[in-house]
Amino acid sequence: MSVPLLDVNAQNRPLEAELKDVFAKVLATGRFILGEEVEAFERECAQYIGAKHAISISSGTDAILVALMALEIGAGDEVLCPSFTFFATAGCISRSGAVPVFCDVREDDFTIDLAAAAKLITPKTKAIMPVHLFGQCCDMDAIRAFADEHKLIVIEDAAQSIGATFKGVQCGNFGEVACFSFFPSKNLGGFGDGGLVTTNNDALAEKILKLRNHGMHPRYYHQMVGGNFRMDALQCALLRVKLRHLDSYAEGRARNAAWYAANLPLPEGCKAPAALENRGHVWNQFTLRIAGEGRRDAFKQHLAERGIGCEIYYPVPLHQQECFADLPASDCPVSEALSREVLSIPVYPELVQAQLDEVALAVAAFAS
Ligand SMILES: *Cc1c(COP(=O)(O)O)cnc(C)c1O
Question: Which of 11, 110, 152, 260 could share a disulfide with 147, CB 3.0–4.6 Å?
Fold first, then answer.
C-alpha cells in the first residue's frame, strides 16, 4: 500500500454530490465575479476565524501583496521575515518595493527568532511578517511585545495555519492584517487558487476591498491603483462546503500527529515535531528533523522507495535564494541547518490506520 503525501481526492470524494450541486447552482445564476457566494464565504470565514473582516483574494500570495499595498509598505521600507518559509512571504515584500530582511528561526517551532530580529532593526524597519509555519502559531505575545517596542506593523502570514490558535485565539487576529491561502495542499484546500485577508481594522478592510478591484469606487472611478485580486464566485461557493468540515479535518490531522508521536520508531538523531504550550496546532505538515551529514536525504530516498510520500519543506532558505543575492548577507544558521535536515511525511486527515502502520514500518526499516 502506497501512502501519498497528500490525497485531495480522498477528501473531496465524500463531498462530490454536494460540490456538484453547488457548481450547478452558481452556473445557473450566471454570476461568476463577486456577488452573493463571495460575500457569504467571507462572512463565514470571518465568523470561523473570529475576525471582524474577512476579504477573499485571488491567492495567498496576492493576499500578502494586497495587505502590503493597503498598509503602504514599499520603497524605502524594510520588513522583517523568517528565512525558513515558503517563497511568497518574502517575494511579496520584494514586489511591494520594500526590502525583505531575513531573520533566523527558532529551534523549537521553526518560526521567526525575535533575538535575531532585534539585531536587524534599523530606522527603515516598518513591519514584521511572522509566519505560522506548518500549522502552528508563532508566540504572538512575544511578537506583539516586540512589535510594540519597535513600533512595527504586524502582518501575519497564516497561509498554512487556518484554525490554529495561540492562547485560544485563532491566528488572523494578532496582526494589523493576516493572510491565508486555499491552495489545494493547505488545510482548507480549494479547487485551484484562492486566498483571504482578515483584519479588525475597518478602514483597512475598506481599502483592501477597493484595492482588490482596481482601486475602483464607484464603478470606473479609481481612487488608488489596485489590481485584480478577486477570488472566483465558484471557488467561494465550493469552499463554503469544505469550510463546514474544517474542524474535523484539523482533528484528523491532530489524531495522526498524536499517533506518530506515540508510535513512530524514529531513528537515532531524528526529532518529531511537537505542539508547544498555548498553541492549538492544526498540523498542515508533520515535519521530522534528521541530523547527520546526508542522513535526511538517505531517509527521504528510503521512504520514497517504499512508496511513502515525503517532501522537503524547504530545501533552500530564502536568504540563499538566487533572486535575493543582491541583498546584504544574512546570518541564519538554524534556517540553513533545517533546510538540510527537515522532511515532511503524510499527515492529511483521511489517512487510514493501515497507512499510518505502513509509514511506521518504513520508518522502522530505516532505523534498524
Ligand atoms: C502557500 C503559502 C503562501 C502562498 O499562498 P498561495 O495561495 O499558494 O499563493 C504564502 N506563504 C506561505 C507560508 C505559504 O505556505
Answer: 152
